[in-house]
Amino acid sequence: MKESEHSHPEKGAHSAVEGNLMNAVEIKNVSKYYQEGEFFVKAIDGIDLSISRGEFAVLAGPSGSGKSTLLNLIGGLDRPDKGEIFLDGLATREKSDDELTFLRLHKIGFVFQAYNLVPVLTAFENVQFILQIQGVPEKHHREKILALFAELGISGLENRFPPQLSGGQQQRVAVARAIVGNPAIVLADEPTANLDSESALSLLGLMKQLNKEKGVTFLFSSHDSRVVETASRVIKLRDGKIEPCGLPLPQQKAIA
Ligand SMILES: Nc1ncnc2c1ncn2[C@@H]1O[C@H](COP(=O)(O)OP(=O)(O)OP(=O)(O)O)[C@@H](O)[C@H]1O
Ligand SMILES: [Mg+2]
Fold first, then answer.
1. In 3-state terms, what secondary structure has residue 45?
2. How far is the CA of 113 from the centre of ligand 2 (A)?
3. Does 54-78+97-255 carry CATH code 3.40.50.300?
4. Which of 60, 104, 181, 197: disulfide with 76, CB 3.0–4.6 Å?
């Protein structure tokens, strides 16, 4: 389904929408600190960032630059110490934990580095689980999931358990699970980190195809320069801050 402003569930006279509806995610002056003994680590340091609907963007940056922290904040797995995050135009700061969980369930799809599939559920059931908790009527599950498996090139693997699948196949099931509920954005923290380079590029190709053909918005992190090159936008983090234009400052000065 192509998203439009009309399909926005909270839009209307009594709307709680405060951000820009064209943005899947809007981050305003967000900071996150961790305490280490007497010191505070500024994991995210006053970031402003918008991800428009339909983007295919990568978070790049050295280890410790804040990529996972930022993805966890956007995904509502953690809360910022300062600033505002809007998901699909909805402010998250004043939300209770239950409200945030509800929002996460409907607006965010996650793909994790270590797959995070439930080992005692089949591939089909791992994806179906999301539809069940979203309250989608059971009669629609089979058709929807089988179509998705076909699109992702994993038809016939529905009844296998995760340990019976290769890393690349598990990651495709994880992508199916992430997009089955039509989220505003799919967040993926190093989705290719455990894959060989051929499987990594094949997974990226698939994500890009979903972005082009279905308009799925992606924000993923990666260390791998070949993976970073596939993105249409590179957001470069360093010490919890975004580097302007995604280029290191000396190169920007050289260009200017
Ligand atoms: N739970 C925590 N407690 C204390 N410090 C933390 C915690 N999580 C992250 N940090 C610190 O916050 C900073 C950002 O960490 P983060 O995991 O976001 O980096 P990253 O860019 O994802 O790194 P990597 O590429 O290694 O995954 C680092 O200095 C890290 O040590
Ligand atoms: Mg990380």
1. strand
2. 9
3. yes
4. 104
SS3 62: coil
Please state at what angle helix 141-151 crosses helix 123-134, rounded to 10 degrees.
130
pLDDT (tens digit per residue) in 123-151: 999 999 999 998 999 999 999 999 999 99
The residues that bridge with 47 in the sheet, in sequence order, are: 30
Write the pLDDT tens digit of every residue in 17-26: 566 778 999 9
Between the CA of residue 111 and those of 152, 165, 176, what are the distances in Å? 14, 16, 9
- Give distance in angstroms: CA of 190 to centre of ligand 2: 7
The secondary structure of residue 233, as a DSSP letter, is E
Domain locations along the chain: 54-78+97-255
pLDDT tens digits, one per residue of 148-175: 999 999 999 999 999 999 988 999 999 9
